[in-house]
Amino acid sequence: MCLVSIIIPVYNTGKILTYTLDSVISQSYNDVEIILVDDGSTDNSGGVCIEYASKDSRIKYYRKENEGICSSRNFGLNRCHGEYVFFSDHDDVMDKYLIEKSLNAIKETNADMVKFGVKLFDEENERVSIRSFRSPKRTSLPFSNVPAFLISDCISLFCSAHSLFMLGSYILSLASCLYSLPSHHPDKLVYFYLAIKPFLLSIIR
């Protein structure tokens, strides 16, 4: 089995962080390291992280000065050991089989990256909106050959790390570099750069 690094920047989400962490530690694929990067939280987020780390040896907790989500992702990247990497946000809830399905997609298609849709939960109005790709159930193709409507889906609808799974080892340095650049939308920089680089994208629903 190959190790998967799950990097989660954390900032002032102590009230809901347990939902995220429960979904991560309950993954059907167990060979993971979970890196929690506390970006200087001022609530009980750090305490929640420490409690979970004390109960699960796969969890590593770090606290740093508040410098933003990009800095936290880089901090995690510099300390991860996995062959594959997944970025989760601190308010995400992962499907139980997400890691397993994404690994299977990479093995079956020999892809460098997996992309998938998300469900958005509106607690105030008790609504769920589903955003998925207008694509076959599973496909793998060079990014430069992705049809325009799929590129729109990738960049405009899902230009966020939490729906971007399994950065291959050669992309890690790219992500670290681009996340260091000043931008309000750092993930878009990654996608635009990848558009001119040779790699295979696997899309799953």
Keywords:
205 residues, 4-stranded parallel sheet, 4-stranded mixed sheet, 7 helices
Please explain how this structure is put together.
- This protein is α/β, with parallel strands linked by helices and 205 residues long.
- It contains 7 helices and 10 strands.
- The strands form 3 sheets. It has a 4-stranded parallel sheet with strand order 3-2-1-4, sandwiched between helices. A 4-stranded mixed sheet has the order 8-10-5-9, with helices on one face.
- A hairpin with a 4-residue loop joins strand 6 and strand 7.
- The relative contact order is 0.17.
Helix count?
Answer: 7
What's the SSE pattern? EHEHEHEHEEEEHEHHE
How much of the sequence lies in strands comes to 15-25%
Shape descriptor reads globular
Question: Quick one: biggest sheet?
Answer: 4 strands, parallel
Question: Which parts are unreliable, with pLDDT below 50 for 5 consecutive residues or more?
Answer: 128-160
Helix content: 25-40%
Indicate the structural class: alpha/beta
Please report the total strand number as a whole number: 10
The radius of gyration computed from the alpha-carbon positions, rounded to a whole number of angstroms, is 16 Å
Strand order of the largest sheet: 3-2-1-4
Distance between the termini: 23 Å
Task: Average the pLDDT over all residues and give the rounded result.
Answer: 74
Summarize this, please?
This protein has helices spanning 17-25, 45-55, 69-77, 98-109, 148-157, 169-178, 186-194; strands spanning 4-10, 32-38, 59-63, 84-87, 113-116, 118-122, 127-131, 138-142, 164-165, 200-204.
